[in-house]
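Run log // design_07
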């Protein structure tokens, strides 16, 4: 297994993805920096709750960057919102990395090469998954660390130890969502095989879910079919985390989503890998 992991890592290291992903993250940082130039901050996929209709859903969902009540005396929760808001960009990076690194071998048929040398399909599968998750983790937490540093320096705020633990706990929860999203991309990729079709389907699914949720979130639980569609969507969790709506069971939902990825999507993708026919 170690040799296969090393092989997959070297394959990633000497591919264009190894440099393309950091470039995409730099583009994300530039995008994030542009949020601070907007008067009053930047809001994305924002929907406001109706306090009179239902007190349990009062407030807003969405992504808020640099929206401070008092810009001269910002609160750390507002700084966290600004940093977490740019997570909306990271699913695109994760999708590109997963499709190009994992799904390309299946669509191009090069996955047959290690199998021809007697390496099991499952071993190849897990080697690819581990490399993808670890590389995403490094990029993800590095990106979130940089955005926090940039924002704190820009706002002249020095977070204490408790605030830093809180911030990285929140980003850790967001990464659990990312892992399940990766398994979803892999499962769809094994089924569809064509990288262009996979990218189109996953982009429509992710962005479509965000649009649908902002439209129905006040009556979310009354939509029997749509709520399951939205629960599969990573932006549902990130949009609520973006407004720090943890008081409404969000942590439990994230854990359930993560477990769903591990106990359903991952075994399903393994079964699909085992049954897949190569031409």
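design_07 sequence
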């Amino acid at each position: 297994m170690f040799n296969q992991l090393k092989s997959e890592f070297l394959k990633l290291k000497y591919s264009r993805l190894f440099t393309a992903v950091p470039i995409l993250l730099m583009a994300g940082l530039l995008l994030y920096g542009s949020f601070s130039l907007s008067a009053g901050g930047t809001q994305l996929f924002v929907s406001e709750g109706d306090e009179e209709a239902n007190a349990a859903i009062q407030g807003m969902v969405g992504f808020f960057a640099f929206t401070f009540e008092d810009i001269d005396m910002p609160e750390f929760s507002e700084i966290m919102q600004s940093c977490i808001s740019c997570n909306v960009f990271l699913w695109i990076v994760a999708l590109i990395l997963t499709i190009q690194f994992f799904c390309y071998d299946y669509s191009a048929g090069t996955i047959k090469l290690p199998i021809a040398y007697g390496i099991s399909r499952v071993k190849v599968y897990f080697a690819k998954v581990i490399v993808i998750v670890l590389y995403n983790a490094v990029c993800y937490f590095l990106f979130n660390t940089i955005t926090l540093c940039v924002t704190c320096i820009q706002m002249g705020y020095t977070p204490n130890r408790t605030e830093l633990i809180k911030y990285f706990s929140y980003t850790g929860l967001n990464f659990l969502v990312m892992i399940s999203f990766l398994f979803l991309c892999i499962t769809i990729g094994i089924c569809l095989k064509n990288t262009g079709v996979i990218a189109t389907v996953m982009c429509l699914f992710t962005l479509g879910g965000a649009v649908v949720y902002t439209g129905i979130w006040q009556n979310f639980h009354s939509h029997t079919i749509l709520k399951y569609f939205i629960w599969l969507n990573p932006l549902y969790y990130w949009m609520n985390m973006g407004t720090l709506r943890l008081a409404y069971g969000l942590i439990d939902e994230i854990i359930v989503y993560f477990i769903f990825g591990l106990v359903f999507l991952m075994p399903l993708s393994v079964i699909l890998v085992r049954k897949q026919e190569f031409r």
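The first helix runs from residue 2 to 13.
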